[in-house]
């Protein structure tokens, strides 16, 4: 696994400097994003949907609407999409030494607000104790999924 480290500026006061390293956990060499980034005691994930797609295979209508994302997943039911999305989130957290229990904040996007009830019912099964704060928004995505999620986790580096 490739891991990048960067020390944050020395303008931080004493105790903060000991935990002020930045570690990036890249997704894949061909994709210019990280699965997760640790900055001190916090871990930030990228936004994940239920599957990976190749942007060069996405077909668009004249108005920019995605017609086909080059995968056979467009008909995947919303419940399955939500579970697969959380599987990606759990994997991203794991590379940085975290679990869903460490999550303090989530940002969630749905293409159809009518899916909120199903989303909420499944979401709460992943956060059964001390649920994180959450924002949820309607969104049009770069591929044909119905849900994306990104999280922030808090897990101190030292003791």
Write the layout of secondary structure elements.
Elements: E1 4-7, H1 14-18, E2 21-28, E3 31-39, E4 42-45, E5 59-60, E6 66-68, H2 78-95, E7 103-110, H3 116-126, E8 133-138, E9 147-154
Parallel strand pairs: 7-8
Antiparallel strand pairs: 1-2, 2-3, 3-4, 4-9, 5-6, 7-9
Highlighted features:
3 helices; 60s Ribosomal Protein L30, Chain: A; 159 residues; alpha+beta; two-stranded antiparallel sheet; seven-stranded mixed beta sheet
Description:
There is one protein chain. The chain has helices at 14-18, 78-95, 116-126, and strands at 4-7, 21-28, 31-39, 42-45, 59-60, 66-68, 103-110, 133-138, 147-154. The model is unreliable at 1-19 (pLDDT under 50). It has one domain: 60s Ribosomal Protein L30, Chain: A (2-Layer Sandwich). It has three helices and nine strands; from the N terminus they run E-H-E-E-E-E-E-H-E-H-E-E. The protein has 159 residues and is α+β, with helices and mostly antiparallel strands. Strands 1-2-3-4-9-7-8 form a seven-stranded mixed sheet, covered by helices on one side. It has a two-stranded antiparallel ribbon with strand order 5-6. The relative contact order is 0.21. A hairpin with a 2-residue loop joins strand 2 (21-28) and strand 3 (31-39).
